[in-house]
Design brief:
The protein has one domain (24-129). It is 83% helix and 0% strand. The protein has five helices and no strands. The model has no long low-confidence stretch (mean pLDDT 91).
Length: 130
């Protein structure tokens, strides 16, 4: 085997390994983290809305819109958690007690809140699980 063939084989192997790492590790983790940031941003906006106006109604259209967008981001987060991220990253998230499923359950309770203090409790639960 000539040195040119050996160099070609090594460069091809490095490129293939880089592609695999990028495709199956970096991009899924990046997707998960950006979705999580969007979800947390939507939750912070809901929290700010509840802080600014103590008498916000559960039927407020802007609040309903924020809750709908947060549900979408949460579903995307759970889907990325189950279908995209690698197993070793799931184990890392479990060691940090991060659970999108528990956040999803608390979010469903948040969408049907009747009183502000119940909404605050649900938001606190979601922030703790993420």
């Amino acid at each position: 085997m000539t040195s040119l063939q050996l160099a070609s084989l090594i460069s091809f192997s490095i490129a293939a390994a880089g592609f695999i790492i990028t495709k199956f590790w970096v991009l899924p983790i990046y997707t998960y983290t950006t979705t999580k940031k969007r979800f947390m941003l939507a939750l912070r906006r809901i929290d700010a809305m509840l802080d600014n106006s103590g008498s916000v109604s559960p039927k407020d259209p802007e609040l309903r819109k924020l809750l709908t967008s947060s549900r979408k981001h949460c579903m995307d987060l759970v889907a990325a958690y189950h279908h995209e991220i690698p197993v070793w990253y799931k184990l890392k998230l479990q060691s940090r007690s991060e659970s999108p499923e528990k956040a999803s359950q608390s979010l469903m309770s948040l969408t049907n809140f009747q009183r502000i203090d119940h909404a605050r409790n649900r938001l606190d639960e979601i922030f703790k699980t993420l």
